[in-house]
Amino acid sequence: GGSRTFFVGGNWKCNGTISSVDKLIDALNSASIPQNVEVVIAPTSLHIARAQEKLQNKGIEISAQNAWVKGNGAYTGEISADMLADAGLKWVILGHSERRSLCHESSQVVAEKTVYCLKQGVKVIVCIGETLAQREAGDTSKVVTEQLGEVAKSLGSDASQWKQVVVAYEPVWAIGTGKVATADQAQEVHQTLRSWLSSNTSSEIAQSTRIIYGGSVSAKNCTELASLPDVDGFLVGGASLKPEFADIIKSGS
Ligand code: PEP
């Protein structure tokens, strides 16, 4: 993980009941969060208020899983960054592969959302990653740098903006499949992304931006991945709903 503050996100996706949220938050309230690890959990929009009420652990913050591209208005079914900020949320996940594939969100829309959320003071976990077909075609670097490139087009070399952004590299073939990237595969892409940032933004931004890994992270594989020089944390789906999330948090210390 290098010198950057380790970041562990828990993406609860479209899961939960009031009582399962209560149980998860109870468990997190008694989890010990290492000083040098930042922990952010993302319940559904419906469960965020409940999670905020129950959460007592000061080492954990709450994130939304998505936001609309603009502010309040005639956008039925959407939630704006204005609302997230008003509700005291510090973070939002944008461009998750499930939203890119199932809801047809383009990299342009993800970049627009990023700009809007940052403007409202909501920090962004922006997700990128290649499909299996793209990896097999040898296009991984091209795909992930193009996805990150759209965000970079909007943020430019403004270090104060990039400080509010965490990049989540999530190979689509590894999400929810139990097929985790190998240490070599993860390090290679993370390093590619960091050197791309260095060439296309600034070396300061490249050195300070957290690039976290997501895709079937578990208590079993997190220690090796956390030790990689360019892996600055994790975005965890399935395992964030289980007790092992506490072990994944500890792997960053
Ligand atoms: C995710 O949803 O971001 C994710 C990485 O899921 P999982 O850990 O279940 O693969």
TrEMBL record:
SUPFAM superfamilies: Triosephosphate isomerase (TIM). Transmembrane segments: none annotated. Signal peptide: none annotated. One of its GO terms (cellular component) is cytosol. InterPro entries: Aldolase_TIM (IPR013785), TIM_sf (IPR035990), TrioseP_Isoase_bac/euk (IPR022896), Triosephosphate_isomerase (IPR000652), Triosephosphate_isomerase_AS (IPR020861). Keywords: Isomerase. One of its GO terms (molecular function) is triose-phosphate isomerase activity. Pathway: Carbohydrate biosynthesis. PROSITE patterns: TIM_1, TIM_2. GO terms for biological process: gluconeogenesis; glyceraldehyde-3-phosphate biosynthetic process; glycerol catabolic process; glycolytic process. Homodimer. Belongs to the triosephosphate isomerase family. This is Triosephosphate isomerase. It comes from Apatococcus lobatus. The lineage of its organism: Eukaryota, Viridiplantae, Chlorophyta, core chlorophytes, Trebouxiophyceae.
